[in-house]
C-alpha cells in the first residue's frame, strides 16, 4: 500500500498543486478581509469575524471544488493511453490501488486546510484585527472540515475513476457549488446527506445568527455512514470494471 501511495506522490505536479492552493487561500482571505472592513457596523472587526468570513468562501465553494480537481488529477494519467490496464498488471490488489488514490487525496486536502489556517493567521496580522485568536473554534473547524471531507473525497475518487475526461470531472465539481448553497441552509440532519455540504457545516463556528443548524452526533454519524456507503460502492465498482 505505501509503495502505491509513494507512487501517487511522485506523479503529482506539486508546483501546480501548491500554486492552486495558495491562489485559493489568497482569494478567500482577500474577500474575507474586505468583508471585515466593510461590515464593521454589523460585526466586530476581530479574529472571529475574519474566521467565519473566510470559511463562508472556503468551506462552501473552494474546498469542495478542490476535492474534485485533485481527484481528477490523481486519475488523469491512468485515463491516458490505457494506463489503467498497465497499473492493474502490477502485483497489488485492486482495492489497494483504489485506496492509495483516496489516501493521496486526503493528504492534499489536509494541505489545503493547513494553508487555510496559515492564511487566516497571516491575514489577521496584516489587517490588525482585534481581540485574541479563538484557537478552539479555529482548530476544531480546520480539523473537522478535513474529517467532513471523507465522504466527498471518496465519492470524487469513485467518479474520477469513471470519468475519462478531466473536464467532465471538473464540470461535475463546479456544478455542485450552487446546490450546496441551498443544502447548507437546512438542518445538518438533512443537508449533511449531500456530500458537498459537510465541510461547511464542520468549519463554520456555532453560536452566530449565520451559523448553520448543526447537531454534532447525528452529523458525525451521517458523515461516517455516507463515507462507508461510497467506499463500498467504489470498491465494488473499481474491482469489477473492465478497463480498456
UniProtKB/TrEMBL annotation:
- Which Pfam families does the entry mention? ABC2_membrane_4
Which CDD domains does this chain map to? ABC-2_lan_permease-like
Name the residues that span the membrane: 56-77, 98-123, 135-158, 170-196, 216-235
Key words of the record: Membrane, Transmembrane, Transmembrane helix
Q: Which domain of life is it from?
A: Bacteria
Protein known as = ABC-2 type transport system permease protein
Organism of derivation: Anaerocolumna jejuensis DSM 15929
Amino acid at each position: 500500500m505505501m509503495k502505491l501511495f509513494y507512487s501517487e506522490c511522485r506523479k503529482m505536479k506539486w508546483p501546480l498543486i501548491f500554486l492552486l492552493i495558495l491562489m485559493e487561500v489568497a482569494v478567500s482571505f482577500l474577500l474575507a478581509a474586505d468583508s471585515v472592513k466593510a461590515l464593521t457596523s454589523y460585526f466586530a472587526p476581530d479574529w472571529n469575524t475574519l474566521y467565519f468570513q473566510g470559511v463562508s468562501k472556503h468551506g462552501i465553494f473552494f474546498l469542495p471544488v478542490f476535492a474534485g480537481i485533485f481527484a481528477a488529477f490523481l486519475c488523469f494519467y491512468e485515463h491516458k493511453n490505457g494506463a489503467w490496464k498497465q497499473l492493474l498488471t502490477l502485483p497489488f490488489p485492486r482495492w489497494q490501488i483504489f485506496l492509495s488514490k483516496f489516501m493521496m487525496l486526503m493528504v492534499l486536502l489536509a494541505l489545503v486546510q493547513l494553508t487555510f489556517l496559515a492564511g487566516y493567521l497571516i491575514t489577521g496580522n496584516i489587517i490588525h484585527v482585534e481581540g485574541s485568536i479563538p484557537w478552539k473554534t479555529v482548530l476544531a473547524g480546520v480539523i473537522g472540515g478535513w474529517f467532513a471531507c471523507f465522504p466527498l473525497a471518496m465519492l470524487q475518487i469513485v467518479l474520477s475513476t469513471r470519468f475519462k475526461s478531466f473536464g467532465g470531472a471538473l464540470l461535475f465539481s463546479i456544478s455542485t457549488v450552487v446546490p450546496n448553497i441551498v443544502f447548507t441552509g437546512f438542518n445538518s440532519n438533512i443537508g449533511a446527506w449531500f456530500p458537498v455540504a459537510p465541510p461547511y457545516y464542520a468549519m463554520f463556528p456555532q453560536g452566530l445568527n449565520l451559523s448553520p443548524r448543526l447537531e454534532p452526533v447525528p452529523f458525525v454519524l451521517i458523515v461516517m455512514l455516507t463515507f462507508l456507503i461510497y467506499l463500498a460502492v467504489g470498491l465494488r465498482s473499481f474491482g469489477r470494471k473492465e478497463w480498456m
